[in-house]
């Protein structure tokens, strides 16, 4: 048997094993992303009584936009970590008279019956981002500016190159700490008991190896943990435009820290931002991806998955579960795939096995490619009985060699006697590193076809094609 066949056989075994792990784990969190009515990002978790709250950012960027559009923060809640309610926008840029834009990643810390919400915002002053603090009397607010100006800004001595992403942690002795920072610049300080002033100078904590942004601090069994986004290519990500979650431990809240490894591989969005929390005796990681319908790097969605500790206190890598991200039932999983051409060393079966690629260059899994064919090609799904569909989602493969993103694509369905364009179709996207969703008026059919035309001089490849019921 050739090495390629062995690799393929091993990856099928790995896929079956991964499926079994998900089934054995109960599959209760296959509904990621947890909310798809709006785009949510940068989650921070807080447990109060029998409820888990997620304080999330709110992505409002238009499709295809190349920057964040974030103006308010929402509070999501659940009593079982499975069914989630969006309680609406509970804090907004407009609540900070001195701020103007960029409602980025915040976190809420309770103290003395009040809830302090630390948020990075564009403070309209010198520099770019500042950290403000709002306060409310309940986890759902109402919240108002607690200070009337920034808690941390570029004029704070030894502040971060980018003052974003605060995480606040209160130790058993009542001392609260704030960590924050982006552009590889992590900083820490004590907070006064009023929670709205720094207590002493800002320090640069040591040992948070490869720190990029998005710290999250907690304590378990007397050990301090810091989870943070890194973007090194030394075991973290395949391209430094993406991020993974590393974690570190310490025996002192201000460090020094010892980096312990990656606990969340890169996600489908370029940014990665996580929180870790215990709820009803189970630990969870809350993070964001680009997996919602129409999602992307600036249209992210919060996901929740179980997190497990080993007996020695180290953390196992989180398995990213997916399912709700398609916003419907993926009929591709039960279809028979066919194509105009597949290279003998690639796999047509790769396109409908339910995989969510980490990026368009993701070769960790089998791929479909049609090298050396060029021009018009297609892949098709057939079902023994008619299915009703209203979306097709294509994740294009690009190996930076003979396979590139296509020049164009379209979706057709079988009327029973002929191929016809799906009615009322949205544009067929050819963007890299994301699912490109074509929406259309529902059709009931036994066949659907994704047509594509290669870029001149290249062949085309696909990592996954979903066909979704309404
Ligand atoms: O959402 C804006 C920024 O992207 C956050 O502050 C970072 O953590 C990253 O997720």
Supply the CATH architecture of the largest domain: 5 Propeller
Distance between termini? 43 Å
Low-confidence stretches: 1-30
Structural class: mainly beta
CATH homologous superfamily heading of the largest domain: Glycosyl hydrolase domain, family 43
- Our count of domains comes out at 2
Find the count of extended strands (DSSP E, 2+ residues). Answer: 27
Shape, per Cα inertia axes: elongated
The unique ligands bound to this protein are: beta-L-arabinofuranose
Q: Which range does the strand content fall in?
A: 35-45%
- Please name the CATH topology of the largest domain: Tachylectin-2, Chain A
What sequence of helices (H) and strands (E) makes up the elements?
A: HEEEEEEEEEEEEEEEEEEEEEEEEEEE
Overall pLDDT metric: 90
Protein name: Glycosyl hydrolase family 43
Keywords: Carbohydrate metabolism, Glycosidase, Hydrolase, Polysaccharide degradation, Signal, Xylan degradation
GO molecular function, one term: hydrolase activity
InterPro entries: FA58C, Galactose-bd-like_sf, Glyco_hydro_43, Glyco_hydro_beta-prop_sf, Glycosyl_Hydrlase_43_Enz
